Amino acid sequence: QVQLVESGGGLVQPGGSLRLSCAASGRFTNINAMGWYRQAPGKQRELVATITSGGSSNYADSVKGRFTIARDNAKNTVYLQMDSLKPEDTAVYYCNIDAVVLVAATFRRGDYWGQGTQVTVSS
User: Model confidence at 105, in pLDDT bands (50, 70, 90)?
Assistant: First the structure.
């Protein structure tokens, strides 16, 4: 089984910062991309940022220059540093990994999601 445990969400004032973490556990043989997505009330889930196993990152235009994604391959953990937060960043943030997992002696590549962590930006 694969488990993703997210932490770091909360309430912050506009202009503030938060750091999200997501630790992945399971019988991985390889974790490819890791990333963060978010879903605001009444809206579809959208990509925030992704990072490859080699460290190449990609960001949504709305967060470029404010958010930074990083990963620690030794700990199977991905981080999202969020600075200069705006009210429109309010959403549930979900961790996602693209990984190859050993299941019943078979290697299976799949997409795995965390349970989500709430980020609220409000004065």
Answer: confident
